[in-house]
Amino acid sequence: MRAALATLDQGLPRNPDLRITRKRGGWISLTPLQPRPSPLNIEALKAEVTETWRLTSLLDIGMRHCTELEVDRQYVDSHGQSVVAFAFTKLLGFQLLPRLKAIHSQRLYRPETGQSDAYPNLQLVLSRPIDWKLIRRQYDEMIKYATALRLGTAEAEAILRRFTRENIQHPTYKALAEFGKAVKTVFLCRYLHDQALRREIVEPRGSPDNDGLNVVEHWNSADDFIFFARRGEFSSNRREDQELSMLSLHLLQNCMVYVNTLMLQQVLAQPHWQGRLTATDLRALTPLVWEHVNPYGRFELDMTTRLPLN
Description:
This protein is mainly α. The chain has 12 helices and 8 strands.
């Protein structure tokens, strides 16, 4: 935490994209990022997938197809983050990378007491010191809950429900919130200092598809593509029917990503694609494509046929 604050403080005078002003007692201003075009190789790859599997039936994606994935980072919008969420993701071993809408009003916490003059360039946005004693007192309880989440011995919803603002006096909640403030401070220092990280999280529309939240927004566009009937509105007021619709949508989403991954692997295995993708192309590579998928028409269910995938 001290290192992150020192890096931000020392780099602030030379950072043309970041300003901290006295407005409203401390205001963080960031220069908006300019959009970048999608890499040409990615456009060519999408075109070849479309040419190879032109108008693949949406039913085929759902019926004709177990992967293992270790989560390294989680992109969320402003409403998907909280100090408790920062604490749990740190304890679980991955990064929470939110796009913060009200970046101007964020505050950084001091790593320790008795150093009020440290980080002179950040004084306007520095808050109180972190209470490390509280965190140490509740450390075992924090680890207990994090382990329950990791092992699946308790449902995430049940655990997280205990640590909301309604239980603000819960000692473990206080410790998680305090720890989360420290983790969030480190994230904010990196976010404000490193343009590459900001671009990774908040790349503007029209930029490579996998840059942070563009993945989530692209996923929402996929929802619209799949759930097209009645303008995506539920056709029933019955909870059971709505639940069935959403479960079907999630199933088709996951199947489409899985099948698209197989398609991309098959195309990229061809000789003319060997060594062709650059680092930028690889960052923009995503299975969230559907130009080759046909969601309309009559679907013939034949469980004996498979898509021509290796």
